[in-house]
Amino acid sequence: MFVDQVRVHLRAGDGGAGVASFKRQRGKPRGRPEGGSGGNGGAVVIEASERASTLLDYQRRPHRGAANGTHGRGDLQHGRSGADEVLLVPTGTIVRELDGTVIADLAQPGQRVTVVAGGRGGKGNAALMSRANVAPNFAEQGEYGEERELILELKLLADAALIGFPNAGKSTFVSRVSAAKPKIADYPFTTLEPNLGVVEIGDRRFVLADIPGLVEGAADGKGLGHSFLRHAERARALVILLDPSPLQEIDCVEQLQVLRAELEAHDPELAARAEIVAVAKLDLGPVDETLQRLRDIGVDPFVVSAVTGNGVEPLLHAIADAVDRAEREAPHGEGFLLHRPVPPSYSIEHDGERWVVSGLLAERAVAIDDLTKPEAADFAARRLTAAGVDAALRAAGAKPGDEVQIGEIVFEFSDDG
User: Does pTM surpass 0.85?
Assistant: First the structure.
């Protein structure tokens, strides 16, 4: 089954906790700190790979997570970092936020983006030693890994896209010029998913995509082709195949007008794409009148029969020329990663009951294993002061005795410096 859009739930690994431990020696009940730090949690990474051809596996298993870091131990034994979860997706996959914001366009094999960061491992008391803290009897907790939902959307990487009404002969044409074996039948919407075929003509090669048949209103959701219009977006050239047979309710001129309108309604940039028009099914009878009507509107179409092979070679050369020309004039498809500005270290707001301080810097300052220990509480307070949280609370209007919440912990604000 072809799947080109899935929603996934991703969770990074949690960081391991640090440990408070001391070297034990006779006559020295508490010697030098030797508590190890916890390992970092694994991240979730999305990578474009030629080994992946579909998003089906992510539809079946949308929940993915990275490994947690392990806790530190005594004797300066640090925890292991959790392994990253690398999700292989087909080349051409776009990673989006739920609101549609594009995070990455993975258009080249090997491109990767870290979408969910693992939690940092907590420091053991050996790593927390300083001049002001010669023998800390506390350690840091590990941080939770990030969690988010994303949309993975696949846009096939084809050099040329074959566009036409249902039963226009697109699948027959692809099967004639490539090794692809799409389903072919004499009823509408035979093609239920895009088909890719590699075409070789002389010493040139290009990839041709057979897009499921479009009908009028496709860009607004009518028919089946609207679900796959996105796959025409990456094509360098569009091949519009017209059907002159009585099976179609409208003639070739109207078909061309409808198809052009639907492509432009889906994406205005498609209107400027290199376009090749061909009239199919030459084997069914004369098409002189159809050709003349198309020429009257400024279109000089190719005429082909995928059944007999007549006219196929000139059309393939024209497609290859259009692809080469488009690649020289407007190379694209390099992909990109969205670089967002670094968020502020913390923010302060009042929820009506207490002051709420949010942000990684503030939360890390109080991520201590036991804040009931006076030394640990003093250490956290010094961290908050150094980070400017005290001054920011004063500037926001906090008064002594006000409650301040950081993460899950609630403090009483004291303005004693």
Answer: no
